[in-house]
Amino acid sequence: MKGNSSAEVVKVPRSFVLLGELEKAERGNTDMSISFGLVDGSDILLENWQCTILGPQGSPLDNRIVSLLVQCPPTYPDSPPIVRFQTKVNFPFVGKEGEVDPSNSKMDLLKNWKRPEKLNGIEMLLLDLRRQMGKAEYRKLSQPAEGSCY
Questions:
Q1: What's the half-sphere exposure (Cβ side, CA atoms, 13 Å) at 145?
Q2: How far is CA 136 from the centre of its chain?
Q3: Residue 73 DSSP class
Q4: What is the per-residue pLDDT across 55-66, written as a single tens digit (0 to 9) for each?
Q5: Among 30, 56, 66, 36, which residue's Cα sits nearest to residue 48?
Q6: Cα dist. 45→59, 65, 76, 88, 133 in Å?
Q7: This prediction's pTM
């Protein structure tokens, strides 16, 4: 008897994906160098997220807390979220108003976004941003004074 060679792929609905990410973050089951949660607890669309990244060791942002907003559009997780830094930073992948351009060559994760296999799209994004901020090529970039915001 032959087995079925075509595996059925189940696509988890957007709201389930985002609820899973929220639950993971609220339980503290994420990397300790980042945090994220809903801007407004009554946001039933789970669209707007307040996030923080602890500046990477040895970087110009060493041990600073960097704040950013992540917006998950209706097409998330099939398309990437929209990212805007609130804390003023100086990196080539961050625009004049704090926006992160998903097509920027430095932002591979956003540029080549694929639907995450696990409930960790926002976490992966924040960790990738932290990794970018800690790259040796950016260590000599002067950063705005701590507490500066866009």
A1: 2
A2: 21
A3: -
A4: 999 999 998 999
A5: 36
A6: 36, 27, 11, 28, 30
A7: 0.90
